[in-house]
Structure prediction request, 141 residues.
Amino acid sequence: MTTVERWVEVHRLAVAGREPAIARRLEQVLAPKWLLTSRFTDAANLARLTLTLGPDASAFYDPGWAESATGDLRQALSIQRENSNLDVVLASGGRLSEAVKLQRRAVALAEQVSRPDLDRLRALLAQIEQAARAQAEEAPS
Prediction:
């Protein structure tokens, strides 16, 4: 059994045992590597399993990336729409860099499929980016 196979098995056990910290960490390691090596279905499935344990920014992002990479932009946008409030939740919790990343992805997907509320998405992105800049300026040097 390879290291990756072991990690996948540990992830499966973490999901079955309701251990979100372990499952999320493994998803954060495996899914990006799989996305970069065109294992889109594997990455999306791993993220979806992780999401059964509750919301997670990385796990929300990966299925959308996988669907858009395979050319299914409508499905990618549907995934993004399902998670459209996560960036607001992250921003209100002070996790602005994650919120900016998710909102940029939503805008990019909306541009590709001519989504009608694109202007609203862009405005929200601008607000989150402004809050992130203000937070960075307030941080002690």
Residues 45 and 63 are 8 Å apart (CA to CA). The first helix runs from residue 3 to 16.
